[in-house]
Amino acid sequence: xxxxxxxxxxxxxxxxxxxxxxxxxxxxxxxxxxxxxxxxxxxxxxxxxxxxxxxxxxxxxxxxxxxxxxxxxxxxxxxxxxxxxxxxxxxxxxxxxx
Length: 98
Fold this sequence. Notes:
Layout: H1 3-7, E1 10-16, E2 21-27, E3 30-37, H2 42-51, E4 55-62, H3 72-75, E5 80-84
Parallel strand pairs: 1-4, 4-5
Antiparallel strand pairs: 1-2, 2-3
């Protein structure tokens, strides 16, 4: 059993695309809720964290250059925040072409 499971904590996964931001709230590796939002703002995240106060960790990915700016308010609400974009060095070659 991992720490988050023992504490009843939750995770938030965020995928920031060019036109939509998709999110999933997870608890014990199960999706609890999902959201599709064009441009999430502080009010959206305030309501989300009010509904799910046990969210402790966030993993976010983005295809947009300004992706991290649109979720800036999330970082201050969680203990762990992981950000992935086209600049991250990983041992995988992405052959995806737009």
